[in-house]
Amino acid sequence: MKTYVVAITGASGSVYGLKLVEQLLSAGNAVTLVVTKAGREVMEFETGFSFPEPGPGASEAVLSFLEVFPAVALKVVSPDDLFDGAASGSARIDGMVVCPASMGFCGSVASGLASDLPERAADVMLKERRPLVMVPRETPFSLIHLRNLTTLAEAGAVVVPASPAFYHKPQSIDDLVDFVVGKVLDQIGVEHHLFRRWDE
């Protein structure tokens, strides 16, 4: 079992992050899930899911919404909890995905800020040379956005924009979401069957 941190920020597209968590758990991995305040608000607006406050019952509520059974290794953590293991380079974290990643979050990490747990965890991934995948969901990109994303890529992060393809002939929004999440899983080496590959 590997352990991944998934952060969901306030960019549109929280459905990508939720699908990612579902896939990671279904593949037998442990997930530390942290959702920012803006991420919670956007998630409820876009999906109707009122993300629970971290604490007793939070993991079960998320698992029930994702319909992932039986209960598996999911830990829901507050973005203010800088004592969580994800904030330390000595913790056994195999990688982190920020999905979706707001431009504000990307700018904070590119500037070396670590004012809360998601920012600190991303900073840890970079300094420890562990996988960090950023999934920006923004368009168009300003020059500031592009420079911040370039800085992150130069520091070792992989930038996977939420840009679904159409060569697999998607039939639904779920198919589009699955393509993006599948591309993210490819970057961290997690097997999936979310879309038909070009050579299949």
Q: Notable features of this structure?
A:
200 residues; alpha/beta; 6-stranded parallel β-sheet; 7 helices
Q: What does this protein structure show overall?
A:
This protein has 200 residues and is α/β, with parallel strands linked by helices. The chain has one domain: Flavin prenyltransferase-like (Rossmann fold). It has seven helices and six strands; from the N terminus they run E-H-E-H-H-E-E-H-H-E-H-E-H. It has a six-stranded parallel β-sheet, sandwiched between helices.
**What fold name goes in the CATH topology slot?**
Rossmann fold
The CATH homologous superfamily corresponds to Flavin prenyltransferase-like
The helix/strand order is EHEHHEEHHEHEH
Low-confidence stretches: none
The computed structural class is alpha/beta
The tally of helices reads 7
Radius of gyration: 16 Å
Number of separate structural domains = 1
Largest sheet: spatial strand order: 3-2-1-4-5-6
Percent strand equals 15-25%
Tally the beta strands.
6
| Biggest sheet overview | 6 strands, parallel
- Outline: globular
- Mean pLDDT, to the nearest integer, reads 96
CATH architectural type: 3-Layer(aba) Sandwich
The CA-CA distance between the termini, in Å, is 28 Å
